[in-house]
């Protein structure tokens, strides 16, 4: 029986700086922890007056005990469990800790209690809620904090509806009383009450779909009262709270606006009655808080604290006015779409909001210091897709919403706002104020923000806006401002603005701006100005006629920055350089410049090889260089050192070999000539051979991908390659043999598939002597494969060969014996799942090999057909799925009995005792999943009909009827009709239009094919028309007793077949 002293010594030991002592103590704790008496002692230590570190260690250890030994209902339970008596003692002791003076103890205790509550509340701990509510009503800050933390954890712990709704019905009134008792509770405590309420809303949202009536009733009882309380609290002036109670009341307001956003996206219809007042209150908060923001955060004389991220709840943290602003702007952005706001915006509200946003997104002194001190932070924050959270980004998102929903009003309103900002800035400049430039920079930040710029250019094209203001800025306002010393942020913003709108200017003015941008890069300007100039050059590069004359100058001024930049800045320089080199396919470059650039890029790689994001960007650059007319010069400078690096680092430093191979692959992809150039394969093959046998899976994948691209680009050179020991084809086959070894990982499945297909397509007659051995190797490996990608890689080559060599393939596989290997347990993976008893039933989950003995021998044809038909519906890629269907058609037309009657998996057999039961992995061991067995001729037609049903490319002229299914809808769905209507106003179908733009018509939705396969006739054929014709011919000729096959089809399949007959 452990003692308190022993447990304390063990815990102290786990915190020792001596590794040996720490490890021994951790082992001792592991041995002692399953003992319920240890858990009791740990809880008592938590409630003791011992050292805070010891108490924290005790509660952390107790949390582990609870997760593993408290109850069988908790995941990860391990016996033994504590007795009910000891559990009761632990619960009582822990609850005392919720009132502890130390916040860390309260928080850790709350996590343990909430875990216990998942199994014990309410059945074994019926008094828990009463106890928590009593603590919350006590008025003691520590007790209130402890109880709220538990309640928050409880709500987040995915309780069922029967637990959640009663919990909220009793808890929320008490929380509301805490929120309203400003004289009793601190602002931080009231903020925490709002945060817990927000957690409750998210919990209700998760349950809404499953329990619509109950949740609808609950929200109707809860939300109106809370919203009324929010409105009352927000009506008061926030300014007096800035220096009061460490900003506790500001923290409460912050939580209120964050919770309003939560309501807006979960139960929006409840906001409708208060929409206009809440928006007006939001705007008034921004007006009221701005003077403090200006004096304390914009002026160099200000003493404002660092603005914390909204959402903190620590009592010792200090809130400030600007912390409120991002949540307010986020809420306002969501409300732009609200029906009740449309008239207000149309009557001048757009301009009012824009004027406020321009003021609030001005650069603070903290921003200046941070960005001047870390240029990479500046680049990251300035990115159009930045994922940081700041006032500026929230403001820009609000502007984007205004432009999207009030496209006719926003451009003109913004123009007026910008003019006012410029006039105010000029007045401050004349008055000698240091920060005069900030309003102009903020206005330009909005104008140069890509979504806003795109909208303004569209408005100009549609004649909704005059270009006078923008041209006035380009011609008259910004040039003299850029020349002023000491304003690098304004200078940089002006350059970016000019890049966005240079198309509006006459050619001479645009050239002047490019020249001004290059002068900044050539000067000793501040880094922020230079980085902004690089970003501006990237926008000019989209205008090739304008930029081409500056191409060499731009390249020579950017090249030195490659060695002077790091991280995000280096990535931006590379992307800009890549855009410039792409101009006119690089024809403007001289051979000398191409060689210098290639050599310089290699030097940059040496310092950044571990950064795979950088390597990805550099790969694009290498591909662009290789696609230029100076390909041979580029590979002369880059290929030998890259191949040497890949080979020499393959074993000791594979992370250095991967980027080398990635860049070589980019060179191959970029090559536009007929071949890769004499000697290319001689240089690279030794490196590929060294890398493909490495243990690093990423390196093996990179090596195989590189080899695949070489096969695609210059297979003749590969076949002509010779060494003293072997030919190029020999080496490729050796690589395939190595990758097909059962000892090798299946993770490279798709790499092997691509290599095999392109080898078959390109090598032609050269493969004839080795093709039988290759196919035998593939089918032997297929028998033990467990993963879908690898199955696809091994099946698709057979499907491809069946188009031209059907008799040869079937004859070879028919006489090839294959020993079935046990595949272990796993997911649906093809393997040889199910028995081959010929009794009409297959048993065992796919991939598990149940119902058969290891070592069973089948023909290669049986193995291929069984695994192919079980898994082809999971194949990925446009070309692969089509060639699979064509292969099935060829098998069906072969008329070979051993093919047509080959047993395949049919439909799932649901036994009465298992109906409605979820079959977990453990249950499948005692009650195996069972399927009927059907012959291949039936399975093939079912698969073909299934692919026709899901085909997105109907044959020209074929009318596809709309089949309406009479689905029984839940009657409760109508209960949320109003909710859905409001939501649909926020997320309209056309807002997902970018998806259809990103996916082409031919490759929607999961195109995995390379350019060669996209151009293959199989990819271009009308597949649906072909399959329709195939089925009609089979029916007309009664191929393979087709009439009887039709009798085996289900109703949906017969309807699809009828479509084919009519087509």
From TrEMBL:
Q: Which InterPro entries match?
A: ARM-like (IPR011989), ARM-type_fold (IPR016024), HEAT_IPO9_central (IPR056840), Importin-beta_N (IPR001494)
Q: Which Pfam families does the protein's record reference?
A: HEAT_IPO9_c, IBN_N
* Importin N-terminal domain location: 25-100
Q: Which UniProt keywords apply?
A: Nucleus, Protein transport, Transport
Spell out the molecular function terms from Gene Ontology: small GTPase binding
Provide the primary localization.
Answer: nucleus
As for subcellular location, the record says: Nucleus
Domain of life per record:
Eukaryota
Task: Give the GO terms filed under biological process for this record.
Answer: protein import into nucleus
Q: Which residue spans traverse the membrane? A: none
Any one GO CC term of this protein is: cytosol
Matching entries from PANTHER family are given as: IMPORTIN-7, 8, 11, IMPORTIN-9
Q: What name goes with this protein?
A: ARM repeat-containing protein
Origin organism is Dacryopinax primogenitus (strain DJM 731)
């Amino acid at each position: 029986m452990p003692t308190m002293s022993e447990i304390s010594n063990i815990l102290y030991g786990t915190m020792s700086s001596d590794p040996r002592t720490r490890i021994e103590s951790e082992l001792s704790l592991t041995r002692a922890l399953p003992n319920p008496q240890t858990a009791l002692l740990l809880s008592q230590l938590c409630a003791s007056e011992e050292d805070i570190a010891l108490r924290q260690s005790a509660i952390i250890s107790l949390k582990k005990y609870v997760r593993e030994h408290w109850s069988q209902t908790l995941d990860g339970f391990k016996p033994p469990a504590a007795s009910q008596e000891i559990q009761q003692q632990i619960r009582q002791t822990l609850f005392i800790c919720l009132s502890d003076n130390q916040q860390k103890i309260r928080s850790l205790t709350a996590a343990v209690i909430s875990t216990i509550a998942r199994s014990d509340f309410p059945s074994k701990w019926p008094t828990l809620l009463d106890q928590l509510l009593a603590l919350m009503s006590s008025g003691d800050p520590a007790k209130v904090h402890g109880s709220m933390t538990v309640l928050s954890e409880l709500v987040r712990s995915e309780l069922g509806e029967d637990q959640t709704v009663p919990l909220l019905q009793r808890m929320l009134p008490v929380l509301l009383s805490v929120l309203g008792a400003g004289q009793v509770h601190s602002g931080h405590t009231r903020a925490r009450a709002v945060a817990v309420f927000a957690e409750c809303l998210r919990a209700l949202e998760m349950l809404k779909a499953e329990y619509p009536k109950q949740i609808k009733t609950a929200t109707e009882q809860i939300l109106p009262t809370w919203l009324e309380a929010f409105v009352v609290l927000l009506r008061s002036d926030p300014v007096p709270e800035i220096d009061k109670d460490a900003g506790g009341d500001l923290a409460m307001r912050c939580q209120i606006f964050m919770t309003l956003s939560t309501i807006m996206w979960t139960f929006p219809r409840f906001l409708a009655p208060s929409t206009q007042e809440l928006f007006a209150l939001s705007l008034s908060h921004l007006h009221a808080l701005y003077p403090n923001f200006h004096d304390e955060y914009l002026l160099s004389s200000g003493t404002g604290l660092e603005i914390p991220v909204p959402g903190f709840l620590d009592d010792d943290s200090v809130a400030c006015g600007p912390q409120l602003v991002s949540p307010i702007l986020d809420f306002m952005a969501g409300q732009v779409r609200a029906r009740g706001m449309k008239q207000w915006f149309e009557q001048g509200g757009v301009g009012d909001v824009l004027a406020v946003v321009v003021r609030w997104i001005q650069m603070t002194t903290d921003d200046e210091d941070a960005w001047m001190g870390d240029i990479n932070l500046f680049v990251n924050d300035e990115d159009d897709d930045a994922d940081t959270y700041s006032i500026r980004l929230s403001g820009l998102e609000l502007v984007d919403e205004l432009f999207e929903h009030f496209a006719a009003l926003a451009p003109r309103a913004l123009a007026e706002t910008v003019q006012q900002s410029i006039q105010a800035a000029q007045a401050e400049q004349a008055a000698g104020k240091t920060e005069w430039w900030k309003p102009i920079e903020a206005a330009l930040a909005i104008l140069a923000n890509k979504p806003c710029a795109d909208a303004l250019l569209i408005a100009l094209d549609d004649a909704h806006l005059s270009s006078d203001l923008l041209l006035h800025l380009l011609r008259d306002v910004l040039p003299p401002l850029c020349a002023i010393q000491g304003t690098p942020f304004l200078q940089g913003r002006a350059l970016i603005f000019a890049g966005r709108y240079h198309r509006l200017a006459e050619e001479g003015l645009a050239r002047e701006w490019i020249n001004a941008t290059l002068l900044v890069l050539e000067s000793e300007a501040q880094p922020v100005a230079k980085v902004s100039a690089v970003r501006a050059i990237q926008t000019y590069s989209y205008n090739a006629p304008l930029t081409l004359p500056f191409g060499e100058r731009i390249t020579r001024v950017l090249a030195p920055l490659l060695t002077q930049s790091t991280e995000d800045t280096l990535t931006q320089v590379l992307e800009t350089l890549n855009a410039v080199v792409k101009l006119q396919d690089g024809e403007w470059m001289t051979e000398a410049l191409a060689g210098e650039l290639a050599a310089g890029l290699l030097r940059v790689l040496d310092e950044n090889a571990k950064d795979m994001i950088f390597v990805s960007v550099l790969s694009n650059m290498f591909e662009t260089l290789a696609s230029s007319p100076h390909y041979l010069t580029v590979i002369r400078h880059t290929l030998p050192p890259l191949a040497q690096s890949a080979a020499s680092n393959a074993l000791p430093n594979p992370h250095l070999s991967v980027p080398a191979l990635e860049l070589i692959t980019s060179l191959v992809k970029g090559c536009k000539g007929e071949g890769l150039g004499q000697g290319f394969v001689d240089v690279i093959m030794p490196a590929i051979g060294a890398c493909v046998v490495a243990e690093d899976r990423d390196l093996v994948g990179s090596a195989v991908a590189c080899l695949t691209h070489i096969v695609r680009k210059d297979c003749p050179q590969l076949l002509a390659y010779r060494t003293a020991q072997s030919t190029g084809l020999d080496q490729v086959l050796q690589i395939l043999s190595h990758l097909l070894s059962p000892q090798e990982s299946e993770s490279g499945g798709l790499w092997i598939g691509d290599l095999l297909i392109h080898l078959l397509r390109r090598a032609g007659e050269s493969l004839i002597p080795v093709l039988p051995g290759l196919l035998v190797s593939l089918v032997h490996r297929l028998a033990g494969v467990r993963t879908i990608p690898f199955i696809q890689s091994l099946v698709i080559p057979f499907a491809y060969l069946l188009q031209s060599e059907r008799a040869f393939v079937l004859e070879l596989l028919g006489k090839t014996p294959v020993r079935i290997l046990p595949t272990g347990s796993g997911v649906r993976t093809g393997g040889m799942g199910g028995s081959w008893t010929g009794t009409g039933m297959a048993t065992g989950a796919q991939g598990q090999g149940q119902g058969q003995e290891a070592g069973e021998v089948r023909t290669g044809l049986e193995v291929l057909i069984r695994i192919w038909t079980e898994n082809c519906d999971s194949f990925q890629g446009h070309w692969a799925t089509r060639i699979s269907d064509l292969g099935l058609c060829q098998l069906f037309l072969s008329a070979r009995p051993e093919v047509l009657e080959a047993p395949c998996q049919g439909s799932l057999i649901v036994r009465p005792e298992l109906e409605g039961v979820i079959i977990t992995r453990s249950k499948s061991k005692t009650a195996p999943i069972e399927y009927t067995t059907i012959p291949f001729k039936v399975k093939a037609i079912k698969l073909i009909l299934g692919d026709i049903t899901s085909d997105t490319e109907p044959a020209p002229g074929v009318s596809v009827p709309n089949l309406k299914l009479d689905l029984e809808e839940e009657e409760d769905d109508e209960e949320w009709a109003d909710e859905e209507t409001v939501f649909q106003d926020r997320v309209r179908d056309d807002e997902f239009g970018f998806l259809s733009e990103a996916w082409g018509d031919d490759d929607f939705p999961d195109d995995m094919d390379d350019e060669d396969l996209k151009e293959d006739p199989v990819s271009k054929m009308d597949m649906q028309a072909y399959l329709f014709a195939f089925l009609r011919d089979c029916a007309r000729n009664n191929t393979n007793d087709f009439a009887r096959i039709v009798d085996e089809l289900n109703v949906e399949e017969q309807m699809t077949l009828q479509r084919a007959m009519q087509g």
